[in-house]
Specification:
Structural class: alpha+beta
Largest sheet: 4 strands, antiparallel
Mean pLDDT: 78
CATH topology of one domain: Threonyl-tRNA Synthetase, Chain A, domain 2
Number of strands: 4
Shape: flat
Strand content: 5-15%
Radius of gyration: 32 Å
Distance between the termini: 126 Å
Number of helices: 9
Helix content: 40-55%
Order of helices and strands: HHHHHEEHHEEHH
Strand order of the largest sheet: 1-2-4-3
Low-confidence stretches: 1-8
Amino acid sequence: MSSTTKTRGKRDNLYVLDDLFVSVHRSAAGTAWRWRTELTVLASLTAAYLWLWRQTTDVWAAVVLAAFVGIVFGLPWTRRFTVRRFWCVLSRHRFQRMCFEGRLHTRNGRVPAVLWVRPTKVGERLFVWVRAGLAAEDFAQHTGELRTACYARDARVTRNPRWSQLVTIDIIRRDTLAAKNQVGTPLTRLTAIYADQLDTSAALPGPAAEYPRPSWPNRPGLGDTPAA
């Protein structure tokens, strides 16, 4: 009795869709998608320079474009917005690189998908879609690699309580409770506004030095009557 072995061909592959995603990820289209933010900014600056060059000259186009970039980085709110977006893009790239180097990917090389990145008061927050074969606990065991890859102070991993494939990763860059950061209070503003009303020495008929305040053991209590 002879036994025949059937070789698995492309039609028998159960993971055709995964292979398609991997091929697209490694293609020029996948590379362009990963660098979409940088390519968009570069294309916008190039288009603006060409438009200005047609309206004026190449020198004035460069001067106007440099002045615009200087204004963006000179104003506090635009500079803060640009710097925060820069760190968001950098964190996305570094996270994907860490997943590849730390082998936090599927068997065919698919790394977790970063759905959205937004800035926070302490750093950035990444919303990650975890592929089949990985779990949030895998990322929790690699917080050291996460903070090192993203040039951050610390990293925290939080799993979605309902959808376990959704993971939130907080990149901590700044400590808002540090000693150099002064926490404001409304009492400081109220004290500055009502300084005259809160000044006890202004209610005395004479200088404050003529009415020395007694020390604590000699102060009268609430029910005591001061001596005449």
